[in-house]
Design goal:
CATH topology of the largest domain: TIM Barrel
Shape: globular
CATH architecture of the largest domain: Alpha-Beta Barrel
Radius of gyration: 23 Å
Order of helices and strands: HEHEHEHEHEHEHEHEHEHEEHEEEEEEH
Structural class: alpha/beta
Distance between the termini: 59 Å
Largest sheet: 9 strands, mixed
Number of domains: 2
Oligomer: single chain
Bound molecules: pyridoxal-5'-phosphate
Number of helices: 12
CATH class of the largest domain: Alpha Beta
């Protein structure tokens, strides 16, 4: 099986793994920046193009600040994400607030920051107006096409999804906001997750372009930007092909010329909210082998667990594993690669073909740079790991320290003294 690339030679990776406490995350700054530039270049034809990086994918301000320098904005879904984005240099309309089931203080904070509010529901119009005492100058709605589109495994079928305004509601939403005096309008959707088939993204563009025309005709509202959401997948398996983004860009442009220019609605700004494809392939979870055991199956027990990376346990997701220094050895053993949680689904891989593994070997789990550390949790009182950045100059810096026991217990009361509520 072909191997995946490492950000450093395996000797240097091994040195790092022996120098730093494992498990830890390592991100490759150069690769992230090159990828961001490439994405911008691919869509440079699109008016006002911007990727609002989905903060949930990798909420680390060092990485977010690097993306901000490349012109990226931030897609946020919570108050802490809003604050982190501002702290990383993404401010005002460079922030998209795509929340759902939104608490009042989050609408308020997004409005005060001048972020673009992307409403998830028709009832949120009244709720937001009541909270703010006004309506923003700019508003966006998340559209859920329901039976008009099929979803995929992670995001689910649109008719089952909790997100967005329906086909019947969408035009009405814009009519209402126009009457309330909103001046600028956007249209958002997010109908796929981790999709590798580029035609899916092209069809989403076609759907939004057509809806822009319909909203103009039926509500008299000129949509100024469409937000394609995220959902561009990455090839987690070595034999998978990355999405053909050049094809996506070319076909989106052809449809833009046909539908948007053809309807006299040019210029229409185009933005994305991609997270996974921006940082996913450039993050690595590095872990040491604590035990190799044989029961009814052969097990490799790591010092990382699903509390560090839960995608395999949550979605049955594949993450490629490299055994450092054994890249050239035959994968002639079949292992379940496990963590130490008291949960039998705490497995990074099941029945994975790998070279023979020994205690203290170092395993690198690939494609962990998005929805990796950020999805971590503290079950079994497992402490969150540190994050490191391999800088463009070759140095390695810590960009988040590991959680300590004191951090973990910092919200608890041990003295049993009553606390007034
Ligand atoms: C509203 C929204 N936008 C963007 C994203 C980012 O998606 P991805 O990381 O697949 O690009 C997500 C992911 O869950 C999302 O919920």
């Amino acid at each position: 099986m072909s191997e995946k690339k490492l950000p450093l030679g395996h000797g240097q990776m091994l040195e790092l793994a022996h120098e730093l406490p494992t498990p830890f995350y390592l991100y490759d700054e150069k690769a992230i920046i090159e990828n961001a530039r490439n994405f911008n270049k691919l869509f440079s034809w699109a008016p006002g193009f911007c990727n609002y990086f989905a903060v949930k994918a990798c909420p680390n301000p060092t990485i977010m600040a690097a993306l901000a320098k490349e012109g990226f904005g931030a897609d946020c879904s919570s108050l802490p994400e809003l604050i982190l984005s501002e702290a990383s240099g993404m401010t005002g309309q460079k922030i998209m607030f795509t929340s759902n089931d939104t608490p009042a203080e989050e609408f308020k904070a997004a409005y005060d920051m001048g972020a673009i509010i992307n409403l998830d529901d028709i009832t949120h119009i009244g709720t937001m107006e009541q909270i703010l005492g006004t309506v923003p100058d700019t508003i966006c709605f998340r559209y859920n096409p329901g039976p008009n589109r099929t979803g995929n495994a992670i995001i689910g079928n649109p008719v089952e999804a909790k997100y967005g305004v329906t086909e019947d509601q969408v035009v009405e939403c814009y009519k209402i906001m126009k009457e309330k005096g909103v001046k600028h309008f956007g249209l958002h959707t997010m109908v796929a997750s981790n999709e590798l088939d580029g035609s899916y993204i092209v069809e989403t563009a076609r759907m939004l372009y057509n809806l822009v025309v319909r909203i103009k005709e039926e509500a008299g509202v000129r949509i100024e930007f469409i937000d394609m959401g995220g959902g561009i997948g990455i090839p987690y398996r070595p034999e998978q092909e990355a999405m053909d983004l050049q094809m996506v860009s070319d076909q989106m442009k052809a449809l833009y010329d046909e539908i948007i220019v053809g309807s006299g609605l040019d210029p229409l700004k185009i933005v994305f909210e991609c997270g996974r494809v921006m940082t996913g392939p450039y993050g690595y979870l590095v872990s040491k082998v604590l035990h190799v055991t044989e029961k009814y199956k052969e097990y490799v027990g790591l010092d990382a667990s699903m509390a560090n990376l839960m995608r395999p346990a949550l979605y049955g997701a594949y993450h490629h594993i490299t055994v450092l220094g054994k890249e050239k050895q035959e994968a002639d053993h079949t292992y379940d690669v496990t963590g130490s949680l008291c949960e039998n689904n705490d497995k990074f891989a099941i029945d994975r073909k790998l070279p023979e593994i020994k205690k203290d070997d170092v395993l690198v789990i690939h494609d962990a740079g998005a929805h990796g550390h950020s999805m971590g949790f503290n079950y079994n009182a497992k402490l969150r790991s540190a994050e490191y950045l391999l800088r463009q100059d070759g140095s390695v810096v810590m960009i988040r320290r590991a959680q300590t026991y004191d951090d973990y217990v910092s919200t608890l009361r041990f003295d049993g003294a009553p606390v007034e509520v």
